[in-house]
Amino acid sequence: MFIADAHCDTLYAIAIEGTKPADCVVTPARLKQGGVGLQTYALFCGKHGPAPAGHPRADALAMLKAVEQAGVPILTGDLPDAPPEVPTGVFSCEGGEMFEGSLARLEEFQQRLRLRMIALTWNFENEIGHPAAEGPDGGLKPFGFELLRAMDREGILPDVSHLNEAGFWDVCERAALPPIASHSDCRWLCDVPRNLRKEQVRAIVERGGFIGVNFYSDFLREDAHATLDDVVRHVDALMEMGAEKVVGFGSDFDGIEHWPEGLAHPGEFPNALDALRRRGYSEDTLRDLAGLNLWRVLKRAEAARG
Ligand SMILES: [Zn+2]
């Protein structure tokens, strides 16, 4: 079964935190062990907060150098017709600071990287908008709207994980491509600002976007003692909202400190699928959830490139 993961922070771990590639959670061997065909590697540039304090562009370039160490080939051209059978990477951006408020910077990165999705903010306000971590108010800024238009032209999906609610609704109103939440869970099951409200899930489902269930225990349960049953619980809740063609995985591996037992690394993805199988999901539904839902929305974005 093709498995795809919409988010990991492995490049940041190697390039910025100095983690040895073999000590990362996401390794080529574990991706292979778990049967992961597509791994999204985030260029995580939000940590420093607004300029001029940080060096997000330099960090992004350092993360690119870490790609070879991460050991998985990254697709910077068109996706193949069929989902890859061996671990293959694609790039995303987490925190739009690396563009420094300039569309020329976006184009520069895009020519080299073929970004598939951009999480518009991380946990700080930036040139694009405001994060969920700082409250629901304050929508996208003028550069945020400009960036959305450019992303539509380039076929880059707007990733609303980390974005606040006002920004979320701006994306829904203005982006032609569907919104995705690469690594967020259900807020009505675990009330943290990084999770999605029912209205947001409904809007993503209506637009044919994508929601990657995050394995971070703190987002799965308020007491952070999550088990595989909690992953199933969040999937169930999304399915109840009509998300069969929208739900998938956004592990957040190498970016989280707690995870459910039995889901500590990519080699354990099959445990999550077994738990969902025991819950009674059909093989067709599991195939969609495991990878095809993410694959289809990536293909849709690619087809929309101008
Ligand atoms: Zn994140």
What does the model show?
This protein has helices at residues 10-15, 28-34, 56-65, 67-70, 103-113, 142-154, 165-174, 198-206, 217-220, 228-240, 269-279, 283-303; strands spanning 3-5, 36-44, 88-94, 115-119, 157-159, 180-181, 210-213, 247-249. With 306 residues, it is of the alpha/beta class. A 5-stranded parallel beta sheet has the order 1-2-3-4-5, sandwiched between helices. Residues 49-53 have low confidence and may be disordered. The structure holds zinc ion.
What keywords describe this structure?
12 helices, single chain, 8 strands, globular, alpha/beta, 306 residues, TIM Barrel, 5-stranded parallel beta sheet, 12% strand, binds zinc ion, 3-stranded parallel beta sheet
CATH fold-level topology: TIM Barrel
Specify the CATH architecture: Alpha-Beta Barrel
Which bin fits the share of residues in helices? 25-40%
The structural domain count equals: 1
Text of the CATH class: Alpha Beta
- Into which percentage range does the β-strand content fall? 5-15%
**Total number of β-strand segments?**
8
- What multimeric state do the chains show? single chain
| Secondary-structure class | alpha/beta
Query: Rg from C-alpha positions?
Result: 17 Å
Largest sheet: 5 strands, parallel
Concise synopsis of the structure shown:
This protein is an alpha/beta fold and 306 residues long.
